[in-house]
Model the fold of this input.
Amino acid sequence: MQPTRPNILLLQVDQLTASKLKCYGDPVSESPNITHLANQGSVFEQAYSNFPLCAPSRFSMLSGRLASNIGVYDNGSEFYSSIPTIPHFLAYSGYQTCLVGKMHFVGADQLHGYESRLTTDIYPADFGWSGDWTEIRQRHSNDMRSFTQAGVCLRNPQMEYDEEVTHRARRKLYDLARENDDRPFFLTVSYTHPHDPYQCPQECWDLYPHHEIPMPTTGALPDQLQDPYSLRLMQQYGLDKEKLGEELVRTARHAYYGSISYIDQQIGSLLETLVKTGFERDTTIILTSDHGDMLGERGLWYKKSFFEDSVRVPLIIRKPGVSPSRIHTPVSLLDLLPTLVEIASAKSEAPSAADTLEGNSLVQLMHGQEDNTQRVVYSENLAEGAMAPILMVRDSRFKYVCSAIDPEQLFDLSCDPSELNNLADNPEYQTIKQGLKNLVEEKWNLESLTDKVLHSQDQRLFIRSVLDQQRTFNWDFKPGDQAGGQCLRADRSYNDWAYNDVIGLSHPGSN
Done:
């Protein structure tokens, strides 16, 4: 039986900056499947991560709340089971829910509302990656191998993981096609590419002539032109002592483009299965990333920065019956939960848990309607290296960044997309800066937030030190054998097993 409400497929990739996709204007990117999806859907040109770091961004997106409001401060923060999530809300509306791939859950709960999960996570579920403001360079920080080992490889752990994600997600679609379950599905398929290491298969590397790989628009800046936090980031990654030559930068960026093409192929395989199973016409598809990658802009790499290439993300929503469009209104990943609730809901009243949501539905924007919502994007960085809360507000034109220990930043993105002209001390912009600063003060209590982060770090680092000695538990999720469900066992006859669960049967030779 076909569902009366749309199925929902959420595709999440990792560390994909919007500016490196052809559908967002990149001149060389080879990502035809993502481009095809963009041509069919609503493309949000100004979509942002609410915390440019893997786990906090994902937890914030799933809960529809800023990470600091759910006690999440870095990649080693526990995601509490008491926090309602997208799968909780959709299950409430009658959906079956399934997660395939990475979500970086930390803690004993590795489902957070998903009815089933088909792979383990690629990263550990314990407190091993807890932030520590007393240190700049920590034991889990990136190092120069990102660049000295960039290039082509036959296989690496991330390829193995993402291909398993694709395999299990495709199998799940076939299983859904076999089932007699009347509920629509919410399927989350989450990949780790194009996250570093900057490596890709030969066939993806060969899509790009090496000499045509674009170099950073704004190359490495001298220390006196860098802001203090960017200098701390460079220390964290060891880039303060070893400067990257042009060839290392070009090779890493080349492999990143190749990784985009690689993940585009994985997505293409999954979307092909969606078509073959007949689900495409009834399925809303969302594609996004948890954060971007600086890729050498200003001499910075990876994430944890509020510059555009780190904090701006792709967001594409293809909903059957909605005309393709490009939307320039600033939005964020907080908006996904209320959007999906509106798309999915069959109930006239929302649960009281929805009262805590901080985002706004995007459905009216997708239909080309003004929704009279004051669209302001909030983002935060509380992780290692920050040393104090770093907070961002972005309205339709300006971006404001502040911290208790670093100078303020104010950029006019309409005329300064590379964010080279800090207007924070410009007398002509003080009214604008004060207005955005007021929004920060309304949203966050800096003193209280600082205390909460430090207290959480102290607790988790203490527990980590004890568990490093004991090794008495393991929160990592261990999936069941998905293939075993298709094998014959004693409770079924051979013919029932062989013929009852066939899908898509035809007789090409018959008249």
The chain has 14 helices and 17 strands.
